[in-house]
């Protein structure tokens, strides 16, 4: 999807790349953000997608404290001129995102939040989310569920089979109007609530979120198997 707007009409979009997780499911001592995928590290590939998007004005990267220098050097090495700051994350994703948005420009009208571990996000997906968020106030990338889903109880007994036709796998990026997002964040903090999904944070404050067309290749690297699959996808793209 290509957005055609005159420059003066373009909103100020600040991208926040969240790469502050522990990588615990990748194995001891492995930081998935710094693993090589194709010709660059995972997090650099994620940053590049937003660096190349003409509607994104700036990028803030949120990472673990020990990785700040490495990622800052990476930004210089690959010429990522939109990277405004690389900052340390918090104890939870919600805290990490909050730290990231406090480092964005005061002019920011929208926050475009993305997982650093989703390095294969396409420009089509980014632009679809931007277009829908500008229309509805908030949007997330997602894809329809392919498999049948079961709800189980504490004893792992099936208690419900939801209608697959209304179920989506939520991805990132996710984009929100800046002021309502900040209000939702303050409200959650006051109530002592912590969410692992930014849309859920926005929803609990009573705001609607649109589901934008994502891509099944926009995978999140969480386990060694995900990394293998991502390498296959990158190799296939180069070969084609």
From TrEMBL:
Catalytic activity, reaction form: 2-C-methyl-D-erythritol 4-phosphate + CTP + H(+) = 4-CDP-2-C-methyl-D-erythritol + diphosphate
Site (Transition state stabilizer): 25, 32
GO BP terms, alphabetized: isopentenyl diphosphate biosynthetic process, methylerythritol 4-phosphate pathway
GO molecular function, one term: 2-C-methyl-D-erythritol 4-phosphate cytidylyltransferase activity
Record carries keyword Transferase: yes
Keywords linked to the UniProt accession: Isoprene biosynthesis, Nucleotidyltransferase, Transferase
The protein's annotated pathway: Isoprenoid biosynthesis; isopentenyl diphosphate biosynthesis via DXP pathway; isopentenyl diphosphate from 1-deoxy-D-xylulose 5-phosphate: step 2/6
A matching Pfam family: IspD
E.C. code: 2.7.7.60
Domain of life of the source: Bacteria
Site residues by UniProt (Positions MEP for the nucleophilic attack): 164, 220
Phosphoprotein among keywords: no
Matching InterPro entries: IspD (IPR001228), IspD/TarI (IPR034683), IspD/TarI_cytidylyltransf_bact (IPR050088), Nucleotide-diphossugar_trans (IPR029044)
Its job: Catalyzes the formation of 4-diphosphocytidyl-2-C-methyl-D-erythritol from CTP and 2-C-methyl-D-erythritol 4-phosphate (MEP).
Similarity-based family: Belongs to the IspD/TarI cytidylyltransferase family. IspD subfamily.
Record HAMAP family: IspD (MF_00108)
NCBIfam families named among the record's database cross-references: ispD
The protein's name in its UniProt record: 2-C-methyl-D-erythritol 4-phosphate cytidylyltransferase
Protein source organism: Acetanaerobacterium elongatum
The organism's taxonomic lineage, starting at the top: Bacteria, Bacillati, Bacillota, Clostridia, Eubacteriales
Gene label: ispD
